[in-house]
Design a protein that fits this description.
Chain A is α/β, with parallel strands linked by helices. Chain A has 5 helices and 5 strands, in the order H-E-H-E-H-H-E-H-E-E. About 5% of the residues of chain A have low confidence. About 5% of the residues of chain B have low confidence. The chains are: A alpha/beta, B alpha+beta.
Chain lengths: 138, 418
């Protein structure tokens, strides 16, 4: 009985973890509490479009799990399409791709010290109080 | 003789060149050493580049197609590009892009060299030598990594011989909730030698200008553009013959051989991308005032399937060229001299190349690293024939009797950005 209870507890924790690790949060260092971007606006922001809010996007490397989820759930494009898009933008002098940081920890640290920046991390990441969660997608 | 406007532009280009070289030398002489990963994107000077190795084999011994024949060739489209962006001020930067190429129809050199002024987040103004944004991919023709195909559909992308201009380009973009909007206009000139299928011809275009609008809606992008310019094409024999016709009083005939004048280009395009599928199409039209410069209509349609890190596609492209009708002005059968003139006049029209063809392409791309892709492509090219069965296509026919007006082209490519 004890074992069964333990096993179900473990499975509960594991499944909880599985759910949360498939979710991502879009976080920003902003004083503007009124910002409520739509999924499409966040997509545009990370594809280099100019929006009414002046936020600078920061991304994670291509192999990062949160990035894979972000590509799938928010951008709606494959990694190779995103890479080819940025090649076209860069070498035609139109836009440059967002700054890329190696890990979620570095992203959170960078956001904290740079007002006006926005990025995404997995939903189980601990978000410091000085950053705002703009959007969560499961 | 160079016009004053052109001289001014050349001067601007030279100034840009020196700024560019100065910035490069200061970077390489800097004692700071190798920049860190952070500094890399925040440095005043950023260096980047791209390279492609394209192997091609045309399975046909009786003709060649854009330099490809029945031997494996890697010179036609292989290239390396190096770009330097130097931030002069927060809203002012200089960019140069050098292309190294070994193809027979192209020379290596600076393909882009311009200053970018960004007065607001939405507005960009560029001054200098730039690519003419005729097509969807005109500005990234050399960057094979930027598109799914190995060769952009020739029937569409070879309709225009100009590629760069010197002048000013302004861009304004705006993006709302679901819809994004981009408008661009440019003004400048072109003065260089252009390579046609079998000749090098000097060409000048003044008052070269265009307007491009782009709308993004969800995963769709629509683009429409209009371009025009006053063209002077150096065809001395034709000019001479035209003046002879004029001396005989055949003004309409003389005028019909005038290769100079206004040319117009229209383009519409749509593209769609999702996680699973993609779609691209472009429809273009070139209209000229001259009876001896071709009017071209062309289009392509590509549909593809994404199975990351692979994608596969099928593509169809077709073009059609037409010319103005010759003037029926010279009387025939009265005077041997006039007969000779009339037949000479008719022979000009008979010799005008109709570069019509269609192609079906099957291809696949494998993004095996985030900055490296391998592509394979098979294209079946079919020449359109005129009513008497002559070859009227981009094929250069070696053996007219045996060539069956179609050939498969096999290509392999490695695309790299760095």
């Amino acid at each position: 009985m004890k074992n069964l209870l333990f096993a179900s507890l473990v499975s509960l924790v594991v499944s909880q973890h599985a759910i949360s690790s498939n979710s991502i949060m879009v976080i920003a260092n902003t004083q503007d509490a009124s910002i409520e971007p739509t999924r499409q606006e966040i997509r545009n922001l990370f594809m280099g479009s100019v929006l009414s809010y002046d936020l600078k996007a920061i991304t994670l490397p291509p192999e990062n799990r949160a990035r894979v989820l972000f590509n799938t759930k928010v951008v709606g494009l494959t990694e190779s399409r995103i890479q080819s898009y940025w090649a076209q933008m860069r070498f035609s002098g139109r836009k440059t791709q967002p700054k890329e940081l190696a890990s979620e920890v570095l992203v959170i640290e960078y956001l904290q010290t740079h007002p006006g920046t926005v990025s995404y991390v997995s939903a189980d990441a601990e978000i410091p109080n000085d950053l705002t969660i703009l959007f969560q997608i499961n | 003789m160079l016009s004053n406007g052109l001289k001014k532009q050349l001067k601007i280009i030279r100034i840009l060149q020196s700024i560019f070289l100065l910035s490069l030398s200061s970077h390489f002489l800097s004692p700071c050493g190798v920049p860190s990963v952070y500094a890399k994107t925040e440095d005043a000077l950023q260096l980047s580049g791209f390279a492609r190795v394209v192997l091609g084999y045309l399975d046909e011994s009786d003709a060649t197609y854009f330099g490809y024949d029945d031997s494996i060739s890697f010179n036609q489209q292989s290239l390396v590009g190096l770009q330097a962006d130097y931030k002069i001020l927060d809203n002012l930067s200089a960019t140069g892009q050098f292309i190294g190429h070994r193809g027979s129809k192209r020379e290596s050199g600076l393909e882009w060299l311009y200053l970018t002024y960004t007065p607001t987040r939405s507005t960009q103004i560029k001054l200098g030598k730039q690519r003419i944004p005729f097509f969807n991919y005109s500005d990234s023709l050399d960057v094979g990594f930027a598109y799914p195909w190995i060769t952009l559909p020739r029937q569409v992308y070879s309709a225009i011989f100009l590629s760069t201009f010197e002048g000013v380009l302004a861009n304004y973009q705006w993006s709302g909730g679901k819809i994004g909007f981009d408008i661009e206009g440019y003004w400048g000139s072109f003065d260089d030698v252009v390579s046609t299928l079998d000749a090098e011809v000097p060409a000048k275009v003044s008052a070269l200008r265009g307007l491009i609008t782009k709308i993004n809606y969800d995963n769709w992008t629509f683009r429409a553009s209009y371009h025009t310019g006053d063209t002077i094409i150096g065809l001395p024999e034709l000019k001479e013959f035209s003046s002879v016709l004029g001396q005989f009083g055949f003004i309409q005939s003389a005028e019909s051989l005038n290769s100079d004048g206004k040319a117009e280009f229209y383009q519409i395009a749509a593209s769609y991308d999702s996680l699973d599928y993609f779609f691209r199409t472009e429809v273009t039209q070139v209209d000229t005032r001259s009876a001896v410069i071709p009017n071209t209509r062309s289009y392509f349609v590509t549909a593809g399937y994404n199975h990351y890190p692979f994608l596969s596609y099928v593509s169809f492209a077709k073009n059609k060229t037409t010319y103005g009708a010759p003037a029926a002005e010279i009387p025939v059968g009265f005077d041997p001299q006039l007969d000779a003139l009339a037949s000479g006049y008719q022979s000009v029209f008979d010799a005008l190349p109709l570069l019509d063809s269609q192609s079906i392409t099957l291809g696949t791309r494998w993004d095996f690293k985030s900055n490296l892709a391998l592509k394979a492509e098979v294209t079946l090219i079919k020449a359109n024939q005129d009513s008497i069965g002559n070859n009227n296509s981009s094929f250069v026919v070696l053996d007219e009797a045996n060539f069956d007006k179609k050939a498969p082209l096999y290509q392999l490519a490695l695309e790299w950005v760095f």
